[in-house]
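Onboarding guide, step 5: your first structure request.
Type a short instruction followed by the sequence, for example:

Predict the 3D structure of this protein.
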Amino acid sequence: MSVLVSPSLLSADFGNLRKDLEMINRSDADWLHLDIMDGVFVPNISFGFPVLKYVAKYCTKPLDVHLMIVQPEKFLTNFKELGAASVNVHYEACVHLHRTISQIHELGMKAAVTLNPSTPVSVLDDIIQDVDMVLLMTVNPGFGGQKFIEHSIEKVRKLRKMIDERGLKTLIEVDGGVNIETGKRLVEAGVDVLVAGNAVFGATDQEAAIRSLRNL
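The system replies with structure tokens like these:
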């Protein structure tokens, strides 16, 4: 099976968003990754529900929502109403992680937990069996275009081992600094889903860039 690709809307042209959404719809992209930032959990603000309603209206791909916000549980119903397929919540932002994961599942969405670069995969020991996916940040969350953190490769290997040893089907997703070179190494280490921003939206041929990532 080819790797799944989830282009990050954060790198799209917001002056011509409809055009970029139509490109995603035509492309071989599997999902559309939505980075929701609140300026509290991360030092930046991205976009809110008025923009997301527009995206949900015109995008035909499943919405892969990444909540970089405090108290994500307050907004889960809103994302369900938008038609989100999956919701990623940060381990570092959830006081009651198991409860939040359960709420996502009760709403009929896939549940994922996200780890910052400095958070070890060992913290997943008591939750890994309850999530559909783990998103590993391979840059510090909050801004696009950052340099890939090299230690992420070993982190992916550790997580792959944890999942395989337990016989789980949990997917591994990575976000940050993903391009053809880093993507190839990440896939070899055991990644299932690549989130790519600049590598897709900054490419001359965006659809070809998505195909290249899927074929790694």
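Each response can be followed by summary notes, for example: The beta strands are 4-7, 32-37, 63-68, 86-90, 110-115, 133-137, 171-175, 193-196.
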